[in-house]
Design goal:
The complex is a heterodimer of chains A (about 550) and B (about 650).
Chain A: H1 9-12, E1 85-102, E2 117-120, E3 142-150, E4 154-162, E5 177-187, E6 196-209, E7 226-241, E8 244-254, E9 279-290, E10 294-305, E11 317-329, E12 335-346, E13 355-356, H2 362-371, E14 379-391, H3 392-397, E15 408-421, E16 427-429, E17 434-436, E18 441-454, E19 457-467, E20 477-486, E21 494-505, E22 511-513, E23 518-520, E24 528-537
Antiparallel strand pairs in A: 1-2, 1-3, 1-24, 3-4, 4-5, 5-6, 6-7, 7-8, 7-13, 8-9, 9-10, 10-11, 11-12, 12-14, 14-15, 15-18, 16-17, 18-19, 19-20, 20-21, 21-24, 22-23
Chain B: E1 2-4, H1 10-15, H2 18-22, E2 146-148, E3 160-177, E4 188-191, E5 213-221, E6 225-233, E7 248-263, E8 266-279, E9 296-310, E10 315-325, E11 351-362, E12 366-379, E13 416-429, E14 433-445, E15 453-454, H3 460-468, E16 476-488, H4 489-494, E17 505-519, E18 523-524, E19 527-528, E20 543-557, E21 560-570, E22 580-589, E23 597-607, E24 629-638
Antiparallel strand pairs in B: 1-2, 3-4, 3-5, 3-24, 5-6, 6-7, 7-8, 8-9, 9-10, 9-15, 10-11, 11-12, 12-13, 13-14, 14-16, 16-17, 17-20, 18-19, 20-21, 21-22, 22-23, 23-24
The chains are: A mainly beta (about 550), B mainly beta (about 650).
Chain lengths: ~550, ~650
């Protein structure tokens, strides 16, 4: 079950699994992580070779790239229709995080029996996934078990996910034990000839568009275009002509439950929202690939709700997303991704969490984080971002193939910016008159370098700069992160990361606090975070 | 893998101090471990594929089509009780020669380390450490001086891992209309979960809504004993918009199964642990066209022993008995029922189920099977009655009935009883199909708080609320009967040639069930209930309800079939206006004639009567109107 792969990390850095089949050409197979072997032409005219894709495989864990430039891989398929195969794969990250602060920094005076130094778990830093401030620097617990059974034509897939380990919790948070999360079938019909590849996913799964990493959600763990988590179908058709590959993809998703008006939002129900109605997402995508190096995609996503149970006077809402992206696999010159997305929301308060834009939860999440509470879910986001990854080892070893079993320096640069237009004339800090919602430009960028010096040791540095409001720099902050990465071999599927991060917080750098998490200007963030985390995949 | 402690007695006591002096490890006789660890990847293909179409296979013991909206709430998993302190590790001196008793397989004990990189294997002397391995179960020592060697590699030739499962996942929405529309509102609305009258476990349910159910079954063992675990949910998390506590069953079943080697003509099987058993299934591979068992479904923790004795070459005698209790017994006092704990009720007593079954099977061109069933579910628990000696109340404070719970008098809670006497019979012809019929007689006395046995009308609470009325307090009777017939037209027409289902076929599944109730609403909890309706006006007393349906699936191509289902449901013989009909055409897609998966596109239309309404349900329809249309995309697979 465990496939020993050559690491691909020099050009793609941290990752949590993608599967691109080299055999069937559909999403979900084992990817030979040797882009330096990719030739400029396909094997034969009209044949499809390693496929480009416009979305991330559903089985890819929903986490940001791992430190150290390694790419987990799983998702092997049976070779024949007659062979039924059981596969078990998984991914886990288990971190210990410690935020360091002082009472005096928080305008408190240590009393008898109190030290000035205070230690926080979880760290009080502006790194919540649903916020624009999220950088992914602070590792979070994640465990995913993927079970599959099937043959080369049809496969049943079930995943079990947890975002906390019960043994380490100080109180029970039921919503962190997601349990059985994905349940879907994958069909790979075989039309006559080898000119058309089809894939159909039916069931409950997630699709992500705008993943900046080559095989994962990128350094920020944020799909730039959208994440759709629901039950429904996703059909993908690919065909080729000489060096060209054409991709067509469509999907329809819905949800399976809706909080009734009698449900009180609380920790145990992950703050159910009775005001959200039954939401559907229809989406269509086209992509063009060239010579396995270039993929250009166009995306249209529409989410809407017309449900009378979300409030008698609540208007029907919708979100339209128009996006384009380009992905370049440049061989020894690295991997580059860039995307632009325009999100238009109209009365989106009633849209549920089925659709996630920049990691927010449905329409209310978009309101809380971008459009403003008085917008009623109307407004727009213009987002662009990208990521570039390069392995110097591969670059300098050319034309000799670089196998990854030697010292290497992996560099990565990444950025994300979004501009908000909203009818909400309020501001994030109304008492100060700062952080206006309308016209806000939010920007973050970063660089990371990882030097693997020994088969068991690597060192990494990362710098991030985040400005939630470019017009008000006091809200911004910077993070400098240094890491020691230990693993059992050059190409092992495990790593232990010892990390120290220093946060250069602005005077108005804000964190979320409480349940449900809300921005609290009075909370002074931690300035230092120490982490030790273990990750493994199979 | 089991080992034995060295019987050193006093020396063992002295050695118990060893951890204090610097750590030690329990050493058991070296197991007969094969070199290297077996790969857990080996699987055994599942047995014969059930037919596609309506009434598709339901894994044995698993509730089919679990709730789509109203919750089958189970309390949040209770943390394991604090384990008794682990006995200090004892160390036996490293033996110069293996002295352990013979290993189960009879092979010679290990003479040297044969497990490279063994890691933490209990009893393996090569391991050194100061603490217990994290994978060690959080329980005390087992009785009998045994060392459970979990994590040790098992002999490949004897032990195997089996993984089977079932997944049924649906995108389903009902379609309704707003009574009045405002600005930016459409008149057509979509409701998820669907707001039709169909509801899991309700008599009004026809199974038209496909719902969700996921079962991951894992088994590990040898031909004699296996450990079985099931992970279940009726609500996979990905497409949910909030966390419904209780919908993730997590580890739902956990039991040992013993297949005792045959003793002459006698075969015996035993199960011990947490599991379900179902009686009164009238379908060939499931409960039939409707989802309620005609006799009973028993769930809990306990034991079940079944034996089969071959009387003649074609006749077998079946005997089965079982005993079960609640999974977690009585809920502690002081627990306040809330949505966060699944509305758990400390007024529910610890309940027990005992059951006995006997049957005969005659094999032949037509295989006949007939079984009799006797089940009883009861409680005799003093803790559910409110106590006057409460520390929160002054002595002598009277205890009052909660007026909002009409079904039970908290100030006086009699012992609860529920008894089922039932039968089921079937005839399975190799050509003409499968005919099943079953019936049961259910009597209850103050049965409202009982859990553990779901009759045709459900457990104590739904039986009371939906069948006997709240005023009856769980006292009444229910007569249930059902019949189901399944046949393949292709098989009939191709006879006497065998039909392997690898060609066009028409599969018909038809069935009917009925229930007749009587109750005594005059008395509840041993006292006359003020305001109780007289029998002549009681909507539940002497009430007949029935439903019947026909499903046909025509498969013309290997990858596609057309199906249609029609149901008529009469919820009450006392009110014809409640009767309604359901029409559900569908398209079924699959990858081959005989496959293990289907994709279904379904449209359902309900034709309601003027007084059709939910049945003691959690469905709350806006404006009080139910939706009458459903669209669904369903996928299911079994392995």
């Amino acid at each position: 079950m465990r496939d020993r792969m050559k690491t691909r990390g020099w050009t793609s850095a941290l990752a949590a699994v993608l599967v691109v089949s080299a055999l069937a050409g559909g999403l979900g197979g084992v990817r030979r992580a040797r882009a330096d072997e990719a030739k400029g032409t396909v094997d034969a005219p009209g044949e499809l070779a390693i496929d480009p894709a416009v979305s991330l495989d559903p089985s890819t864990p929903q986490v940001a790239a791992l430190p150290g430039g390694v790419t987990p891989a799983y998702g092997q398929r049976s070779l024949s229709e007659g062979e039924w195969r059981f596969d078990f794969h998984g991914f886990l990250t288990a971190p210990l995080n410690m935020g360091i602060n002082t009472r005096t920094a928080q305008h408190m005076t240590p009393g008898p029996g109190q030290t000035n130094l205070v230690l926080h778990a979880p760290p009080v830093v502006p790194d919540d996934l649903e916020t624009f401030s999220h950088t992914g620097v602070t590792p979070t617990t994640y465990a995913q078990l993927n079970f599959s059974e099937g043959n080369s034509v049809v496969t049943g897939n079930v995943s079990i996910v947890a975002k906390q380990a019960n043994v380490s919790e100080s109180f029970l948070e039921p919503a962190d034990q997601l349990g059985v999360t994905d349940v879907y079938l994958t069909f790979l019909p075989r039309p006559a000839g080898n000119k058309l590849h089809l894939q159909l996913l039916v069931g409950a799964f997630t699709t992500r568009y705008g993943a900046t990493g080559e095989y994962d959600e990128g350094r920020y763990g944020t799909p730039l275009i959208a994440r759709i988590s629901g039950v429904g179908e996703l059909a993908t058709a690919k065909t080729g002509y000489k060096d060209w590959t054409f991709i067509f993809e469509e999907g329809l998703h819905g949800q399976t439950n809706k909080a009734s008006s009698s449900v009180t939002p609380d920790v145990w129900n992950n703050f159910a929202d009775p005001g959200a109605g039954s939401t559907f997402v229809a989406h269509a995508h086209v992509g063009v690939g060239y010579a396995r190096r270039l993929t250009v995609g166009g995306h249209f996503i529409r989410a809407w709700s017309q449900d009378d149970r979300d409030g008698e006077n609540e208007p029907d809402g919708r979100i339209n997303i128009f996006a384009g992206d380009v992905r370049l696999g440049l061989g020894r010159f690295g991997h580059f991704y860039a995307a632009y997305s325009y999100t238009s929301a109209l009365q989106a308060r009633s849209l549920s969490r089925v659709l996630s834009v920049l990691n927010t939860q449905g329409g209310p999440g978009l309101m809380n984080e971008y459009l403003g509470p008085q917008s009623n879910g109307t407004g727009s986001l213009s987002t662009f971002g990208g990521q570039y990854d390069l392995s110097l080892g591969k670059l300098v070893s050319y034309p000799v193939a670089f196998s990854g079993d030697g010292p290497d320096l992996v560099l990565s640069a990444f950025a994300l910016q979004t501009h908000v237009t909203t009818p909400d004339t309020g501001s994030f800090a109304p008492a100060l008159g700062l952080g206006a919602f309308n016209g806000a430009t939010k920007r973050k960028f970063g660089v990371e370098g990882t030097y693997s010096m020994l088969s068991w040791l690597a060192a990494s540095m990362r710098f991030d700069r985040v400005d939630p409001f470019t017009s008000d720099k006091d809200f911004g902050f910077s993070v400098l992160t240094s890491r020691i990465i230990l693993h059992s071999d050059w190409q092992s599927t495990d790593q232990v990361v010892i990390q120290y991060a220093h946060w250069f917080n602005g005077t108005l750098t804000t964190v979320r606090d409480g349940e449900p998490p809300m921005y609290d200007l009075s909370v002074v963030p931690d300035s230092d975070v120490v982490s030790i985390s273990a990750s493994m995949w199979w | 893998m089991l080992g034995r402690m060295h019987p050193f007695g006093p020396l063992a006591f002295a050695l118990a101090l060893a951890p204090v002096l610097g750590g030690a490890r329990v050493l058991a006789a070296a197991p007969d471990a094969a070199a290297g660890a077996p790969s857990p990847a080996g699987t055994t293909p599942t047995p014969a594929t059930p037919p596609t179409g309506a009434g598709a296979a339901i894994p044995p013991g698993a509730p089919p089509n679990p709730p789509t909206g109203a919750s089958e709430i189970t309390p949040a998993p209770v943390p394991p009780a604090a384990s008794p302190p682990v006995a200090p590790q004892t160390v036996a001196p490293a033996p110069t020669a293996p002295t352990a008793s013979a290993s189960p397989s009879g092979a010679a004990p290990l003479q040297a380390d044969e497990l490279p990189n063994a890691g933490y294997v209990p009893g393996y002397r090569a391991y050194q450490g100061l603490s217990l391995g994290p994978s060690a179960p959080r329980v005390g020592a087992l009785p009998g001086g045994l060392t459970a060697g979990f994590g040790a590699p098992m002999p490949l030739t004897q032990w195997s891992f089996k993984w089977s499962g079932f997944l049924n996942d649906s995108f389903q929405s009902s379609i309704g209309r707003r009574m009045t529309t405002g600005p930016d509102q459409t008149s057509t609305v979509f409701h998820i979960p669907p707001m039709t009258v169909d509801e899991y476990a309700s008599f009004l349910g026809t199974g038209t809504m496909p719902g969700q159910w996921i079962a991951l079954n894992m088994s590990y063992g040898n031909p004699i004993v296996s450990a079985n675990l099931a992970l279940n949910t009726w609500n996979p998390t990905e497409p949910t918009t909030y966390y419904q506590i209780g919908s993730q069953n997590f580890v739902n079943d956990a039991y040992l199964r013993f297949d005792i080697p045959a003793m002459g003509e006698l075969k015996t099987r035993a199960m011990v642990g947490y599991f379900y058993t179902t009686y009164g299934a009238i379908g060939q591979y499931g409960l039939g066209i409707y989802t309620n068992p005609l006799v009973a479904l028993v769930r809990g923790v306990g034991e079940n022993v079944a034996g089969e004795y071959r009387l003649t070459p074609t006749v077998r005698l079946l005997l089965e008995e079982g005993f079960m209790g609640n999974r977690n017994g009585k809920i502690p006092d002081g627990t306040i029922a809330s949505a966060g704990n699944g509305s758990t009720n400390p007024g529910l007593p610890a309940a027990w189920v005992a059951h006995l079954h006997a049957g005969l099977v005659r094999e032949g061109t037509t295989t006949f099977k007939a079984q009799l069933h006797l089940l009883t579910n009861w409680a005799q628990d003093d803790r559910v009655q409110c106590q006057n000696a409460s520390t929160l109340a002054p002595a002598g404070t009277p205890c009052f009935d909660n007026p909002t719970t009409h079904e039970i008098n908290e100030s006086y809670v009699p012992n609860a009883h529920l008894t089922v006497v039932g039968f089921d019979a079937s005839a399975n012809h190799t050509t003409y199909g499968y005919l099943g019929l079953a019936g049961s007689y259910v009597t209850g006395k103050s049965a409202y708080p009982l859990r553990g046995m779901a009759t045709f009308g459900g457990e104590g609470q739904p039986l009371t609320d939906r069948w006997w009325g709240t005023q009856a307090g769980g006292t009444g009777s229910l007569y249930a009967a059902g019949i189901n017939y399944t046949a393949s037209l292709g098989r009939i027409l191709s006879a006497p040639l065998p039909f392997r289902s690898d060609g066009p076929d028409l599969i018909v599944n038809a069935g009917a069930v009925l229930g007749y109730t009587t109750d005594d609403a005059q008395t509840v909890g041993g006292a006359t209930t003020p305001g109780a309706l007289p029998s002549s006006l009681d909507p539940f007393n002497h009430r007949l309800r029935y439903k019947l349906g026909v499903d046909a699936l025509y498969t013309y191509w290997s990858w596609m079939g057309f199906g249609v289902r029609v149901d008529r449901v009469t919820p009450s013989s006392k009110d014809a206006a409640q009767t309604f009909y359901v029409l559900a055409p569908r398209l079924v897609f699959k990858t081959n004639w005989m496959t293990r998966e289907t994709i279904t596109l379904l449209y359902g239309k309900w034709f309601y009567g003027s007084n059709t309404h939910p049945d003691a349900s959690s469905i709350v329809a806006p404006d009080g109107r139910l939706d009458d249309q459903l669209i669904a995309l369903n996928v299911n697979m079994w392995w």
